[in-house]
Amino acid sequence: MIKILKKDLHIDFMHRRRFAYFISLVFIAIGMITFFVRGEKNFGIDFTGGLIMERRFTMPVDIKDIRKAMTEVNLGESVIQDSRGGTVFLIRTEKGAASSVDDKFKEHFKDRIDSNNYIIRTDMVGPRIGRELRQRAILAVIFSWIAIIVYVTIRYKFKFAVAGVTALIHDVLVTVGAFALTGREINYPVIAALLVIVGYSINDTIVIYDRIRENIKLRRGSALISIVNASINQTLGRTILTTFATLLSVGVLFIIGGEAIKDFAFALFVGMFSGIYSTIYVACSLVISWQRK
């Protein structure tokens, strides 16, 4: 595979850029329509409000058994975190579920519960706090885009910065749309994944932008579209191998990482594939369109 990627490739990526624009717009439109139709169902307890329970057991309990017990009271989708080697668990679940969860735990793990030390805390997260957290999460993503625009403008040109950030917006919308279409909930770990995607995608874009800048100097007089195509082909091996290695880790997280981390891994998986696509067919394509205008 490495030998194949080291060959001098001449794939005309930019020839299909208008078709790629159409594919992106269609997928984003379908995803966003689904997102707005689902409304509050898109968001987890972190953003809509709910119950935070922290419970202590006298002996280690497997997190799978905790989830099985919660599934029996129709709360299997709750976020469960093992915070102290299987003896203390942090659970984010629906409002008013504390009594049913505690009753089920006492039924399943009665030999591992000391009533004097069992309940550590039970806190309610109201919808107002959830909305504030949602706004802060959105601002975090927007501020990351602004910082990248400033950085890329200083290092390259403003048109490169706008094209690059447009590609990042594309990646975020694609990932959010994928969550809406698959019925997954957006929570704080997913926001963290979106920020990781932003950083990963712009890094890939910067690599190609560097090569474009070098080729502009080396191929004076050549058309920009041929320079961009050549730059993408020259960096394609690095992009594929780096992404493949990263996706191996993400795949392992998704398969054996447990319920609490599956959404995080799913977001990375979708976002990284979208990042490769958008670097070529959004970031680079927009630079050409801007130049021609």
Please, what is the average pLDDT?
84
What portion of residues belong to β-strands? Answer: 5-15%
What count of structural domains? 2
Gross geometry: elongated
CATH superfamily of the largest domain: Multidrug efflux transporter AcrB transmembrane domain
Brief sketch in words of this structure:
The protein is α+β, with helices and mostly antiparallel strands.
Structure description:
This protein has 293 residues and is of the alpha+beta class. The chain has 2 domains: 2-43 and 129-292, Multidrug efflux transporter AcrB transmembrane domain (Multidrug efflux transporter AcrB transmembrane fold); 50-125, VC0802-like, CATH 3.30.2130.10. The protein has helices spanning 2-6, 17-38, 45-48, 63-71, 98-108, 127-155, 158-182, 188-218, 224-256, 259-292, and strands at residues 50-56, 79-82, 88-93, 119-125. Strands 2-3-1-4 form a 4-stranded antiparallel sheet. The longest helix is centred in the last third of the chain and has 34 residues, at 259-292.
